[in-house]
Specification:
It holds the Pfam family SIKE. The chain is an all-alpha fold. The chain has two domains: 59 residues; 50 residues. 91% of the residues lie in helices and 0% in strands. It has two helices and no strands. α1 packs antiparallel against α2. It is rod-shaped. The termini are close together. 0% of the residues are buried.
Length: 110
């Protein structure tokens, strides 16, 4: 059974379109997972910060302390989210490239 170049190209196009679909689905799931993780992380941080606020309440006014902590937390969460997104994107692209290259090598050896 010999494959023509046209058949190989058609198979590569099909694989590419399936990979794009899977990549889109993975992005959606990843964003939903990150959203849930972000909410859980915020709840944990809120609990920890309330304890810290109670300890520090005697030293500074609550409003100043809360405002500073909220600003820092927002910034840290944004950086963490960006870091997770960049890592996930890098991993997805590496996996896609590995899949494409393995299919290419497989076709070339046949």
């Amino acid at each position: 059974m010999s494959l023509t170049i046209q058949q190989i190209l058609q198979d590569a196009k099909k694989l590419s379109s399936k990979l794009k679909e899977h990549d889109s689905a993975a992005d959606i799931i990843l964003s939903q997972t990150q959203s849930v993780y972000k909410k859980i992380d915020a709840m944990k941080q809120y609990k920890d910060e309330v304890g810290e606020l109670n300890d520090a309440a005697r030293q500074r006014p609550h409003s100043v302390l809360i405002a500073g902590i909220q600003q820092e937390n927002r910034h840290l969460r944004e950086l963490q989210q960006e870091n997770r997104e960049l890592r996930a994107a890098l991993e997805e692209h590496q996996n896609a490239l590995e899949l494409i290259m393995s299919k290419y090598r497989q076709q070339m050896t046949q």
